[in-house]
Write a structure and sequence with these properties.
This protein has helices at residues 38-47, 60-72, 105-125, 148-164, 179-190, 210-218, 233-240, 263-284, 289-292, 296-306, 337-348, 352-366, 418-423, 467-470, 499-518, 534-547, and strands at 12-17, 27-28, 31-32, 50-55, 76-80, 91-93, 101-103, 130-139, 171-176, 201-203, 222-225, 247-249, 316-317, 327-328, 398-399, 402-403, 455-457, 463-465. Helix 7 links the parallel strand 11 and strand 12. Helix 4 (148-164) runs parallel beside helix 5, helix 8 packs across helix 11 and helix 11 packs across helix 12 (352-366). Among the domains are: 12-259 and 310-366, Metal-dependent hydrolases (TIM Barrel, Alpha-Beta Barrel); 410-496, no CATH class. 35% of the residues lie in helices and 12% in strands. The N and C termini lie far apart (99 Å). With 570 residues, it is an alpha/beta fold.
Length: 570
């Protein structure tokens, strides 16, 4: 607390900020508009008193990225989970061909194992970085991203995982228009009073009713408030009644910013006008004239408020006109947490100091935000020297029991790393090994993560997987990012042949067919009523080429034909 002679310096914890979103790397809708400015965003947060940031994990990839940020910045912490709107990773299209998504047990098991393995890894290697499980829950407002059935499955799965952890981690929860199902699943997992949820939790970005808020409060859960919690008159009335020992502050950037159209902003304007009136009255009566004189920053804020604009300490520009040190218009940042605090103070009729200190205490009570050592500079939690055993060796993202990062979910064919794929586009060695010219042949050398599927030629010159050197059991499989389908041309890079090679050989085949046609070869009807078509030739050729059954580039090789399913008219 500040003394009576010193101004109060606010201190904040932004409990929910999505710093892994591409917009903080300057990427908007897959288009780069400006350089990455995460460091500048963090600096601005620190300048307003926001000394700790909790970066939310909304998918396995986001969780991985959040943990990396937590390693890089001492004031950053991370959560791990799968958001309801990204829970479609648990699903597949319905076999009824109605466009509906249904839970896929195989994918679900793989996702569950990988998420659990990632959490275990982070907790054992560098537990200071991972402070909660989440963001997960239910969102019935945005069913276009994921339907109810899949969301419910995702929530149940992650609640079960949370209950199984020892020690437990706090829960970072999401609930939109789904209160009944949300509370029911929590009680099913942790008891009617959540007595088994020893680590507690927070329902962030709360927009529910007063009755819903009080039920969550009585269950011992904290309530997170951001710009979305301050949109309407009903929202603001609920926020004004949140018990002060249950409230937490957040921005949920890059979304959920406070806008002039929000009811909360109108309340803030009235609050600022009342403050200004009191200062003017104090000056008129001669009481503490110097104290009543507004500072330059306050004067600028009052001027902005009078114009109906959100006051900001920093220049705000469009993303296309980004300059170093400026905030990006419509991209919310942690430094805006002070606006949330001021509006909450206005709604509750308390000082900003009261709100900040209460939220700080509540946050530190729920989350273990330990001071982190900044020495060394190594990415500590990725020091994957631990073999976890059990099911983790089958988890996507693991290789030989060591976590190497998130993987996309595919089921079948094998592809190569980008640098290996590109190598097939170059000239190959003459020894039948499919090695690029100039590359040294290796024998049993240790492979690097991402290059585990090295090949060696067999006696027939075909590229085969060196399973022996991979040291994988029959029941194990390769990391799933090594799997992909053929492209639109029927080519798969893992087979060691480029699309250009296939196109060239296909042209040779068609030229040979033209010569045969000119010479009258294969033109007589054998009485079967079938004829060979160009599509049949192409399909058979691609099948032989991709499966390595015939080296059609050899002079002695001739493509086999098959009969068409279409009868020739007599």
């Amino acid at each position: 607390m500040a003394s009576s002679t010193e101004p109060y310096m606010p201190r904040y914890v932004d409990i929910g900020i999505n710093l892994t979103d591409p917009v903080y790397s300057g990427i908007y809708h897959d288009n780069t508009k400006h350089p990455p400015d995460v460091q500048a965003v963090i600096n601005r947060a620190r300048e307003v008193g926001c000394s700790k940031l909790i970066v939310t994990g909304s998918s396995i990839k986001c969780t991985w990225d959040a943990l990396q940020l937590a390693d890089e910045y001492p004031m950053v912490y991370a959560t791990a989970g799968i958001h309801p709107c990204t829970s479609s990773v648990f699903s597949r299209e319905s076999p009824l061909d109605n466009g509906e998504m249904v839970v896929d047990s195989e994918k679900s098991r793989a996702i569950e194992v990988e998420l659990k393995a990632l959490i275990d890894h982070a907790m054992s290697v560098y537990p200071q970085n991972l402070v909660a499980l989440g963001e997960f829950g239910l969102d019935y407002d945005r069913l276009e991203h994921c339907n109810k059935a899949v969301q419910l499955h995702s929530f149940k799965t992650q609640l079960k995982m949370a209950a199984s952890l020892s020690p437990q981690l706090p829960l970072f929860l999401h609930c939109r228009a789904a209160h009944k199902d949300f509370v029911s699943l929590l009680k099913t997992t942790f008891g009617s009073q959540l007595e088994k949820l020893r680590a507690g939790g927070v329902v962030h970005s709360f927009t529910g009713t007063y009755e819903e808020m009080m039920e969550l409060h009585e269950l011992g859960l904290y309530i997170g408030v951001n710009g979305c919690s301050l949109k309407t008159k009903e929202n603001c009335d609920v926020v004004s009644k949140i018990p002060i020992h249950s409230i937490m502050l957040e921005t949920d950037g890059p979304w959920c910013e406070v806008r002039p159209s929000h009811e909360g902003w109108q309340r803030y304007l009235a609050f600022k006008a009342a403050q200004k009136s009191e200062k003017e009255k104090s000056q008129e009566t001669g009481e503490t004239e110097q104290q009543g004189k507004p500072s330059e920053e306050e004067a600028e804020a009052d001027e902005a408020a009078a114009a109906g604009k959100i006051p900001s300490r920093y220049a705000i520009v469009k993303k296309e006109k980004w300059v170093e040190g400026a905030m990006v218009k419509f991209r919310n940042e942690p430094c805006n947490i002070e606006i949330v605090a001021q509006i909450v103070a206005a709604l509750k009729g308390l000082s900003v100091e009261d709100i900040c200190e209460a939220a700080w205490t509540n946050t530190k009570t729920l989350f273990v935000l330990a001071d982190k050592c900044t020495e060394g500079g190594d990415v500590a939690w990725q020091d994957s020297g631990t073999d976890y055993g059990g099911d983790t060796h089958k988890a996507r993202g693991f290789y030989l029991g060591r976590y190497t990062g998130p993987r996309p979910f595919h089921r079948r064919q094998i592809i190569w790393d980008e640098d290996i794929v590109n190598s097939w586009e170059t000239d190959n060695a003459d020894d039948g090994s499919a090695r690029p010219v100039g590359e040294e042949e290796t024998h049993g050398e240790e492979t690097k993560p991402g290059h585990e599927t090295e090949t060696k030629p067999d006696e027939d010159g075909e590229a085969k997987l060196d399973v022996e050197n991979m040291k994988l059991d029959d029941e194990e499989f390769m990391p799933d990012d090594e799997f992909n389908d053929d492209d639109e041309h029927g080519h798969n890079p893992s087979r060691g042949n480029s699309k250009a090679d296939m196109d060239y050989l296909l042209q040779k085949l068609r030229a040979e067919d033209r010569r045969e046609a000119e010479q009258g070869i294969n033109q007589t009807d054998d009485g079967s009523g079938y004829e060979v078509t160009e599509d049949d030739e192409k399909e058979e050729f691609e099948s032989q080429f991709n499966e390595g059954e015939k080296d059609v580039d050899l002079p002695s090789a001739k493509p086999r034909r098959r009969r068409s399913s279409r009868r020739r008219s007599r």
